[in-house]
Amino acid sequence: MAGCERRGDRGFVTAEAAMVLPVLVMFATALVWGLMVVAAQIQCVDAARTGARAAARQDPPDAVVDVTRAAAPPGARVTVSHEAGHVRVVVVARPPVLHGLPFDLREEAVAAVERSDGETAGAGA
User: Fold this and answer.
1) What SS3 class is residue 94?
2) Which span out of 9-23, 87-101, 111-125 was modeled with the highest average pLDDT?
3) CATH code matching the domain that covers 9-123, chosen among 3.30.70, 3.30.1300, 3.10.260, 1.10.10
């Protein structure tokens, strides 16, 4: 087998591994970070929907914010607004791990305000 090797080829495997391994590590790190961002975006969607449901049921404003923050990623900002029979809940969070990136994760949900039977009957009188 010694006759199959050429003298000039020695060390190429080491050089190729030294070039490829850092690229593979960076690719794997970027893939994991991307999955974390997608998971945080899904948390923002769930939090906005949860908050909109709570606000549509006419829960107290503090309870709506607390429920929304509990479902949102850590450090998320929550905004609840009421407009013409609808509630809008906006959840804004920073991407996980790399907080210096120039974008935020943002999701909003809108729901119609639910009226109880007593309010509907009293509104017509």
Assistant:
1) coil
2) 87-101
3) 3.30.1300
